[in-house]
Specification:
The chain is mainly alpha-helical. The strands form three sheets. A two-stranded antiparallel sheet has the order 1-2.
Length: about 475
Amino acid sequence: MKASQQLAGGRNRLCEWAWYAIALVLVLAFGALNLQLPFVSDQIATMMGAKTLAQGGTLYVDFWDNKMPGLYWFYLLAGESFGYTEFGIHLLDMIWMTVFSVILALSLRTYFTYPWLSALPPLTVVGLYYVSVETQQLTQLEILVALPMFLSAWFATRFPKSAGRFILAFTASGLCAGIAVVFKLVFALLFVAFWLVVTVHLRASKRLEWFSIAARVWLPVSVGVGAVLGAVVLKFWLDGALFELYWTAFVYPPQALAMSTPAPYYRLGESLIFIGTYFAPWALFIAFAVAHWWRHERDPLTSVLVAWFLVGIVIIYIQRFSWWPYHFLILFTPAGILGIRGADVACDFIMNVKRERAWSAYLVSAMIVFPGIAALAVPAGQKANAYIEVFVKKPGTVQDFHQGISTFYRVYSGAPGSWSMKERVPARSTSSATHSITICPAANRPYRSSAGPGAIFYSRNGSNCLSNSKRHVRLTFTLTNETST
């Protein structure tokens, strides 16, 4: 090999390493900006449940909320590892998402024509999440499940030549799907869509027989999902709370939906603005990726990503009684990867037209993606400025920072059902409202909930305890709203 070729090869490797290093540093910096963000109601309620578990309590028995157990176990791990504080919970979030970033960067190298572009999905998925979310959207299950969701999609589109590895890959896909479903049952629709897309691809491109697809795809993923869900069922059975799990997962949701009214359309509009604003710089590239996939090369991973995005929209619509912005976080992963795939397609087109030297592809790709990456600086700067105002210019305390970030700073008081809400400025007048929570007694094991009035609670004897029932013990707590002049 000539010395010039060795020099060019070394320079190319240096350029690639620079892309990955810069991307990872930015992801870590964006994540650090969220470490001290205060909790709001959702995170507080989840942390209350995690602390109940840490103290030996049983989920859905000593503490009740309608979320699936996955999120409580995540908060439990975070609290036991780093403390039951905003910093502790968000630190595990940051570690989890950093691992996700590394997996994205390494696993997508063969997906792009120009491998170094795999350094950018961590920025367009994880980085964008960190700069865009506010207190209510941080550490929500919709983004935490992005890691097992992506791994499930990736394992399902590998197609190893070895029959044993092929089956092993789909078993791993099922295991990852099971982990995500433990966070939220409705996500099962997403994985069924993944495997249906893969089935069509194997039937059309690989010419596999139906029996072979059933034995090598559907049986392994079923084993994987069943292993995870079976372990969860076994745990609740050992805890004596299996029926409570069943009621929370399958009986309560339709009853709650029957009593609820759909979310207003303005909230859906606000949520669409939330995702549309931050993905606007990548919208054209997402269109490039989809158009290239449709007209030229329908590779399995892009097919699954498109299915992820479309079925994700359906899942969001199903949750029409909420339509909170954080529901749209399940779209960040397919949108972020497809955005970089579109930039990859655009770079390849330019390189073929111009017939430039190979090393200039670094420059061309950098020019293509720079505007979208640079757009992250604005919301990141706004978050950084909040820290500067409190910790550098004043300096202030963490509580000052919390009160400055959140209009209503919620403080966990330690007792289930007890809340305190404080305004960011000293109060002049105080108004309070007392809310009732029904405790349904069953063998001296009460059900406690962080939910507000009007929620449905479950009694072990099979009856529903409404908040106005006189048959059950009632627990009261006070929301104190301190207003200022």
